[in-house]
Amino acid sequence: MHPRHTSQDNLRAREFEAYVAGAGTRLLHTATLLTAEPPDANPHARRLLTLALAHTYAAWDRLHGADPYAHTRQYLATRFANGAWHRRGGLLRPRARPEGPLARLSPQERLVLVLRLHEGVAEEQTAALLGLSAERVRTVFHRAMAAVLRPPPGPAPAVGGVKAVPS
Predict the structure, then answer these.
(1) Is the pLDDT of residue 101 over 60?
(2) Residue 85 contacts residue 107 (beta carbons within 8 Å)
(3) Are the beta carbons of 34 and 48 closer than 8 angstroms?
(4) How far, in Å, CA of 141 to CA of 133, rounded?
(5) What is the reported pLDDT for 135?
(6) pLDDT tens-digit series, residues 119-147
(7) What are phi and psi of 94, to 5 degrees?
(8) In this structure, are residues 49 and 80 in contact, taking their beta carbons and an 8 Å threshold?
(9) What is the pLDDT of residue 89?
(10) Are 101 and 90 in contact (CB under 8 A)?
(11) Any idea what DSSP says for residue 58?
(12) What is the dihedral angle through the alpha carbons of 162, 101, 122, 138, rounded to the nearest 10 degrees?
């Protein structure tokens, strides 16, 4: 290998490592929110993030100053959408229903909510990213917010060891 290529490859690897060191935790949190897995047991989120980072690394030289975070987030979102909506059982294999406020949402609702609230992506950009109309994104977002804000069915959880008194 030519010494110049080795130097360029090393620079590319160092740049990418710095990028992952800075953005990896947030991207993993985003992937974990999408898959609705617990933060301490999130194998599907980790696989999703690994695929997104591999895709970003492969495209690193072609990004030419573009935001690598936006590129990774876009791939993360489209890969999640394809796995959750089109291949049912591909990336997201059936598993025990996770707990938490986002677990009650459909994959589409989770994706829209995470992009809009957690990632701060504008409604129009979310629509373009997902291939939906802005009105559809707005509808899905409002439905997801209503579901998250609605208390779960069943008895109230114990707080500080004190159980709720049934009325």
Answers:
(1) yes
(2) yes
(3) yes
(4) 12
(5) 97
(6) 999 999 999 999 999 999 999 999 999 99
(7) -55, 140
(8) no
(9) 45
(10) no
(11) H
(12) -110
Cα(115)–Cα(107) distance, rounded to whole angstroms?
12
Residue 154: other Cβ atoms inside 10 A? 6
Q: How do residues 43-90 score in pLDDT, each as one tens digit? A: 999 999 999 999 999 999 998 789 999 999 999 999 999 877 554 444
Question: Which amino acid type is present at position 165?
Answer: V
Pairwise CA distance, residues 32 & 103, whole Å: 11
Question: Which residue has 């089109």 as its token pair?
Answer: 86
pTM, 2 dp: 0.79
Cβ(49)–Cβ(27) below 8 Å: yes
Q: Is the pLDDT of residue 12 over 50?
A: yes
Q: Which CA distances in Å does 27 have to 8, 49, 94, 114, 121? A: 26, 7, 23, 11, 14
Amino acid at 47: R
Largest interatomic CA distance in the chain: 78
The tokens 């980790």 sit on which residue?
A: 46
Token pair for 48: 């999703």
* Amino acid type, 27: L
Q: Would you say residue 149 has pLDDT above 60? A: yes
Among candidates 33, 36, 23, which has minimal Cα distance to 70?
Answer: 23
